[in-house]
Amino acid sequence: MRNKKDKDFADRRSAAADAKAARLDAHRVAMKAAEPNRLARQEERLAVAVAREERQAERARAALEEEERVALDQAKVDAAAKTDEAARDKAQRDRSSHGADDNAAQKAERDRRYANRKARQR
């Protein structure tokens, strides 16, 4: 038999609806068949995400420890520099006070010689 060429609109519409329903049923069957695999993939993705978060937390912790170590080292360097500067300042003060003492002693010696010379002249 030959196909009827003059299908009317209602026939084409019902054929499209049947095809759509068949595709939907096929999709539902495929989804039910793939459900165990989907759950396994979902669990795997979850495990990967947890591992990623752990690695990120480890990197953040390592970065924080490094910052603390650098800050501690910097504090040690600053303390050493401050101590060194204080020692230099003290040495400078000692030299300047020693120089003042020397200047005072030199002046006293000069004054003594001057007084002796004046005493000899009289």
Number of strands: 0
Low-confidence stretches: none
Query: What share of residues are in beta strands?
Result: under 5%
Helix content: over 70%
Distance between the termini: 165 Å
Give me the number of helical elements.
Answer: 1
Q: Radius of gyration from the CA trace?
A: 50 Å
- Shape descriptor: rod-shaped
Q: What's the order of the H and E elements?
A: H
In short:
The chain is mainly α and 122 residues long. The chain has one helix at 9-121.
Question: In terms of topology, how is this protein built?
Answer:
Layout: H1 9-121
Q: Can you put this structure into words, describing what you see?
A:
The protein is mainly alpha-helical and 122 residues long. The chain contains 1 helix and no strands.
Give me some keywords for this one.
122 residues, 1 helix, mainly alpha
